[in-house]
Amino acid sequence: xxxxxxxxxxxxxxxxxxxxxxxxxxxxxxxxxxxxxxxxxxxxxxxxxxxxxxxxxxxxxxxxxxxxxxxxxxxxxxxxxxxxxxxxxxxxxxxxxxxxxxxxxxxxxxxxxxxxxxxxxxxxxxxxxxxxxxxxxxxxxxxxxxxxxxxxxxxxxxxxxxxxxxxxxxxxxxxxxxxxxxxxxxxxxxxxxxxxxxxxxxxxxxxxxxxxxxxxxxxxxxxxxxxxxxxxxxxxxxxxxxxxxxxxxxxxxxxxxxxxxxxxxxxxxxxxxxxxxxxxxxxxxxxxxxxxxxxxxxxxxxxxxxxxxxxxxxxxxxxxxxxxxxxxxxxxxxxxxxxxxxxxxxxxxxxxxxxxxxxxxxxxxxxxxxxxxxxxxxxxxxxxxxxxxxxxxxxxxxxxxxxxxxxxxxxxxxxxxxxxxxxxxxxxxxxxxxxxxxxxxxxxxxxxxxxxxxxxxxxxxxxxxxxxxxxxxxxxxxxxxxxxxxxxxxxxxxxxxxxxxxxxxxxxxxxxxxxxxxxxxxxxxxxxxxxxxxxxxxxxxxxxxxxxxxxxxxxxxxxxxxxxxxxxxxxxxxxxxxxxxxxxxxxxxxxxxxxxxxxxxxxxxxxxxxxxxxxxxxx
Length: 619
Prior knowledge:
It is a multi-pass membrane protein. Part of the Sec protein translocase complex. Interacts with the SecYEG preprotein conducting channel. SecDF uses the proton motive force (PMF) to complete protein translocation after the ATP-dependent function of SecA. It is found in: Cell membrane. By secondary structure, the chain is of the alpha+beta class. The protein is about 50% helix and about 25% strand. The strands form 7 sheets. It has a 4-stranded antiparallel beta sheet with strand order 2-3-1-4, covered by helices on one side. Strand 2 (about 70-75) and strand 3 (about 75-80) form a beta hairpin. Helix 1 runs antiparallel to helix 13 (about 445-500) and helix 13 crosses helix 16. It is elongated, with a radius of gyration of 33 Å. The two termini are about 20 Å apart.
């Protein structure tokens, strides 16, 4: 038969639409205003979450007559859900007054969906800042500091190679543009050094200057690669930090050469997020230069491979400049007590860090190694480009003797108290930023404007959909009704697809993309119906007219939609946030409209008219 699907095709179409309806359901449920109470990662007065605190909060809310939907302790965080925003704000004010110094108290919205939907990973479609309100940050990353750090590391590598090759030199020092210059005794030593130094890195350019100088230049490709890596790592670390606060789906994306945009839909507590983002602490492990005497320290007679750092107790500690291990290689940390009941921080390293520390400690047993705590703070001043000037603060928090070869797990001991150990462990878990950052711009968008945008957007969508349905039914009668059902199915498919795919956020431009896609989606049905009408006018049998109408319209439909998809892909690749949202929505909408207009309507038509002798169509 011309117009007949096998059973499996009908079942496949039904399965697709039933699944799409199920995964659209969470978007129909209203979010609940929520307060999260979590441990304060930046506070040394660490307080553990327990049932006693939970009962205390319940008593406070009951005494203040604040109605809440639920209050639970989960994953060391307390979550309080409310029915109304007024109750949420009232509870926030009261709980902040009591607990803000000990805990982080965060305002947000959480989805209110049945357990069976959560069990199958069905989630509501994620809303952008312009629809649900929230916090918007523009972060500037100081990539100059990263280049300074790499310059120091290369200077150390140059010294090591010159020492191993027994090539004498007078001085190695920094010059502008992060280049390095080496002074030798004469041209023979300089020429002898060129070959081994050139093998350090293919992106290092060596120039002989005068009779005894060697100019070491970083290529622009190398500098750009260093900056790219720093920005990428900062994005990853910031995403991880925000996730630790219970914000599960933040938007963290690069903007320009040295900026990062962070969007936190649904959150209103800007102070807590600002405090968390501003933490730029890291660790460096360096060998103590025990050969330097107190007399040399007091008279500033320090060799060029070493420098003096201040300890927690106010002592001056001579350290080698070479960094044995940095916080970049730390993947986890936790607090425990040693055999004498003293606090210690247990550290786990990645594969690279494990290799570095293992090789180093193997060859330096009996020597002292120091843990240097490094933090960058804004001094309140701006440079010539308007960027905040960050001041580097350093202190030695621990000195230990290397007693054996270390592996991927070791501990830092000698910490003053348990709260300090917890504070250090939390900072390490938050991740080590590759480049210091500061907040360049911040905005808090209220939820009221977002609600107005949602109402207006979906009103426009409903009006556009209703207009298309009326036109199709009036013009194509019964086939128009089938096309209208396909339009509604297309909308459901779009919403379910956008809620399933990670990273897709519904914004006003996305709603525009939905409206446009629904308006254009009827084109395919118009092409099909007009082809069928032409075949009937030519005197062809009805079954043959239906078959030929779908077959002849297919090429035109595919060609038109492919060109739209190609244009949308280009928009997505070169566009910014709002344009990307519009492009990805259009791509999804074109795909779902092709499925509903070609496969979906054909299945309905075959089910109604297939295997029947028909003399007239309602079209």
